[in-house]
């Protein structure tokens, strides 16, 4: 993305949130609006997480997550290092703002893809970080799940490639939908290892349900024949090989014919472990891919690549697994 800055002779304290001159706001006012939106958003996300784990003291949750992040960044085994926590009086606030910024950026990036793709000047692309906090808060209130039309079209092209030998009566598609903001926050703010560069493999997800097992095998075989290294034995993430080497390897990968989609991993869903232990073929798979150039975000010490996921499964098997769990693409 490119940002053009024009330096004018007449100084003013306004910042433009759109191409229209009528959408200029005083910087001080915009800053306060952003700060308020961010604080409210973080409060809502943290409250929902505390309910999920049934632990009401949110201050302790903040401190625990921040201490974990500091230790993973500043301490190395055997080096005899230590952290003077007294010197980190604002530890929780520092980590809170870093992760919240990354969560908002990753979540909102997809929303403006249509403006870039169409060149729609009525919805001109501006530095979208100016709009991240209020947009996230609005999407939470409206319970938005739809991705951009651009992303949806990519899923349609991938599915068309996979079901080339099937008829429309042979399968059903659910989604695609965005990863819920709450789920993204939980993953990045709380889970261990969130400060290391990694890949979020299911930022947008859909499910392809196939009516019979034989057709499922046809789809899996089609992927394996077109992409021999798809099972991940040769693919290593950026946390293992570094960002530069990772991007070099991705650049060498073949794309789905007629698209910019790069398939990088096909593996049985974790629910299939018992079947496989019993020497039975898996009936449910996760297919992960990049949509063009891998999308990369960095805020402070935290780096994240964004990828997407198509789950492919035998309909009866998937429906049986969902008796006690509603997948978010069904919502």
Could you describe the 3D structure shown?
The chain has 331 residues and is of the alpha+beta class. The protein has two domains: 14-142, no CATH class; 149-330, Beta Polymerase, domain 2. Helix content is 44%, strand content 17%. The protein has twelve helices and ten strands. It has helices at 27-53, 58-74, 91-109, 113-118, 132-142, 149-162, 181-190, 213-226, 238-241, 243-252, 273-277, 315-321, and strands at residues 14-16, 24-26, 171-178, 198-200, 204-210, 261-268, 284-291, 295-299, 302-306, 308-314. The strands form three sheets. It has a five-stranded mixed beta sheet. A three-stranded mixed beta sheet has the order 4-9-8, covered by helices on one side. It has a two-stranded antiparallel sheet with strand order 1-2. A hairpin with a 2-residue loop joins strand 8 and strand 9 (302-306). The radius of gyration is 22 Å and the shape is globular. The protein starts with 13 loop residues before the first strand and ends in a 10-residue tail after the last helix.
SSE layout:
Elements: E1 14-16, E2 24-26, H1 27-53, H2 58-74, H3 91-109, H4 113-118, H5 132-142, H6 149-162, E3 171-178, H7 181-190, E4 198-200, E5 204-210, H8 213-226, H9 238-241, H10 243-252, E6 261-268, H11 273-277, E7 284-291, E8 295-299, E9 302-306, E10 308-314, H12 315-321
Parallel strand pairs: 4-9, 5-10
Antiparallel strand pairs: 1-2, 3-5, 6-7, 7-10, 8-9
